[in-house]
Amino acid sequence: MSYVFTTPPMPWLYQQLWQSQAGGRFGYQAKVYKAVSCPCGNTPTSPNNINCLACGGYVVLYPDPALETTVLIPSVEQNLSLMQYGLMEDGDIVVSPMPGTIHFDDFDLAILPFIPGIPTFSETFQRGTTATDTSSYRMVNVEGAWTVDSTTGTNTKYTPNQDFTFSGKTITWIGNQPSAGQLYSIRYGALFEWVAFNPPSPRYAFGQDLGQKAVLRKRHIILPSAPSLIEG
């Protein structure tokens, strides 16, 4: 028996999945920055020009305002297979933009709502000489900051809203604080920036866009020295 299809299957059967979570659906509202090659003279195969303040030597710029789109997030993956070699990634994320909207290209950057809940990020950096320091990501909340005395093993905690305040990526010290140049760690809920690091895969059926599949990785892993003040 043969079958004749007069119309293709309806790919929009699941269209409601892409609708905003604000409406009780599954879609996340994403801000996407399109990547542009930096004209500083660097190339991915030549030694990095770490003195380029525009790209940090990584040949990637995000000069235009963000584009907004709705994406599905089918999975968050933890890549732990390289732990035996001393390398552990902090997790990748797979996204599919709503069909008919933007497509991700290599090194495009996305900012997504926290999923699930608020991912916690612990970061270590050096106390500056001014009243403020800058974190890698926007801080949704902060649990605390710590210094250690490596000779005695003791640690000192600094308390949010007592020793420092935070807004976006800015930490402002108002009380007890590490000395200038001292290393300290801070633990906070982070609004991560994600970078498309694998060639995104288009998906089509019957000539219709079914939503691209893109794998994203946290920006500090892919572009650790690039300027990080996007949406600062």
Output mean pLDDT: 76
Q: State the helicity in percent bands.
A: under 10%
Rounded Rg: 21 Å
Shape: globular
Number of helices: 1
The total beta strand count reads 17
Provide the β-strand percentage band: 35-45%
Query: What about the largest sheet?
Result: 6 strands, antiparallel, barrel
> Structural class of the helix and strand makeup?
mainly beta
Order of helices and strands: EEEEEEEEEEEEEEEEEH
Stretches where pLDDT is under 50 for at least 5 consecutive residues are 1-13, 80-88
Gap between N and C termini, in Å? Answer: 63 Å
Question: How is the largest sheet built, in terms of strand order?
Answer: 1-4-5-17-14-6
Quick recap:
By secondary structure, this protein is mainly β.
What would the keywords be for this entry?
disordered N terminus; 1 helix; 2% helix; mainly beta; globular
What does this structure look like?
The model is unreliable at 1-13 and 80-88 (pLDDT under 50). The chain is mainly β and 232 residues long. The strands form five sheets. The chain has a six-stranded antiparallel β-barrel with strand order 1-4-5-17-14-6. The protein has one helix and 17 strands. 2% of the residues lie in helices and 38% in strands. It has one helix spanning 219-222; strands at 28-33, 36-37, 60-61, 67-77, 92-97, 109-111, 120-126, 132-134, 138-149, 154-158, 164-167, 170-173, 183-191, 193-196, 204-205, 208-209, 214-218.
